Amino acid sequence: MAGPILVGVDGSPPAAAAVAWAADDAARKGTPLRLVHAVYRPPHGARSYPIPGLDDALSRAGGEFLREAEEIARERHPGLDVSARLLEGAPARVLLREAESASELVVGSRGRGGFAGMLLGSVSGHLPGHAAVPVVVVRPGRTAEDATEVVVGVDESEGCEPALGYAFEQARLRRGGLRAVYGWRPPPEVYAGYSVFDPEEAGQLRQTLDVGRIAAWRARYPDVRAEVEVVCDHPVSALVDVAAAAAVLVVGSHGRSRIGAMVLGSVSRGVLHHAHCPVAVVSSRHSSPR
């Protein structure tokens, strides 16, 4: 049986949205849901002055956050196997440690300590690329409850295979379609007139992906309607635009294309900051469930 789906809880609206998304995903997959709140207590030497009762207050608040999160999950899926744990330590470290026995890690885009104008918090920005399991970042108010289409970013590297596996499985569970998107941008010299650009190259690239990499996954998931789309734009812009109303946008944690770099620091991180839907970052260490 697959490990539980792990959710980071801190009482913030993004965390509540993450709990709802994770509960739905756990119900579809038939796996338990594990709620975790990390109580971070700064070392006494790092405090300018002692605050009486602070440690107890942090623990009480954490327990309340977990109770609220459990209510959200059970209200959505009364029969779901839900557990809650109050742990000690820095949130990112705690979640990475707990994710070692999980099948997926879900977090809100920004925690209670983030600034209002920030789209991605320190914890949600750190976890993708470091966890071996898929990390899903959920932004409140951006999840379309009835959306079924899954969008996945592809390139010409083998590094996108785990992301494709996760995306096809999500599409199968949702009984929806899948759109594999290749963000294709010609080199700057084309616009400057210093080289000759063949406009048919994008079409050839789509055909190569369609009958090669995507065809292999279609054979494994014959019930998933999958399409390939090559967009002449920067990969981040292409993925964000196509996935505006998607159930989830899936990207690999790294990869490399002959046209442009596809690494967490560029495409994946850009998508995490700008996408309107939940984003799943899938590590190259992740293996498909089928």
UniProtKB/TrEMBL annotation:
The family annotation for this protein states: Belongs to the universal stress protein A family.
Q: Name one Pfam family in it.
A: Usp
Ranges for domain UspA: 2-139, 150-282
Q: What is this protein called?
A: Universal stress protein
- What InterPro entries does the record point to? Rossmann-like_a/b/a_fold, Universal_stress_UspA, UspA
Q: Which domain of life is it from?
A: Bacteria
